[in-house]
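Protein modeling request. Please complete all fields; requests missing the sequence field cannot be processed.
Requester role: graduate student
Desired output: 3D structure, token encoding
Chains: 1
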Amino acid sequence: MFLISSVPTMLFYFLDWKWLAFPWVPVALLGTATAFISGFKNTQTYNRAWEARQIYGAIINISRALGIMVRDFVRTQDKTMEAAIHRQIFYRHFAWLTALRFQLREIKSWENVKTRSYNLQYLKHYKVPEWESSLEQELNAFLDESERDYIMGTKNRATQLIATQSAQLKTLNEDDMIKDYNYVALQNLLKELYEQQGKCERIKNFPYPRQFSSINLYFTNALCLLLPLGFLGELSKLTEKLGENIIWLTIPLSVLLGWVFLVLEQIGESTENPFEGNANDIPITQISRNIEIDLREMLGEKDLPGPIAAINHILM
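Delivered output (316 residues):
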């Protein structure tokens, strides 16, 4: 904006190119249109981020409900076997949380965390855990070898993990370890987990429509180009009263207003994909770890993993 405003101002002042002075009314009309489209974009991209946070809030609640239901509904005379079954179901749920976050943090072609300079600069200050390790390594802690190999051989790992949970619950119901009513309640929780996973996949796999994103960028760039010319037109009317040097106010005023609209554009661009791994992401790794801690305590475990700590005040 400094360069865009400095060049026409110097041409106007030193070379007396008076024709660069532009009427303010067209600039104001374009500014109004740009403000509307920028406001629309930022509202919609914020809604995507807020919906993603609501989804993970629901996953927290469903996970806790699943934990207490499994613990209290799955019963057998052999308490050692009962504890082992509880642990297997809980750990498979941890595997589902892990598989889901790995799927959500895969880079899509339309995401901009690694293509925009204003996002790239932040990658130096934090780490995305899903980019630092592999899903197979993470699943080693939660699944036995045969189940892990089966899950890794599927396309949608999170989906198949819930399907495996359902198959085990069906077997437990047939063996009379879960009463029919309790079995239905547990299956409804699995259905709710599928619903939340589907909502995450919808946000992840459907970008903010390009036509809205592109038109906002075009409007913003056009406004930034016309702002200095409009200010030249307005300030040139004041030269008789305030002197010719008043023209130089074109530069700071253009920089200030241009900065406002350019930052609005950048904020919308860096908010529209809440699972892409940028500094504004929903902290799905931290949420998943908190769920794991809660459920491990339900199992009576004492050796709990620590919560995910923020790196430079950024939680992933």
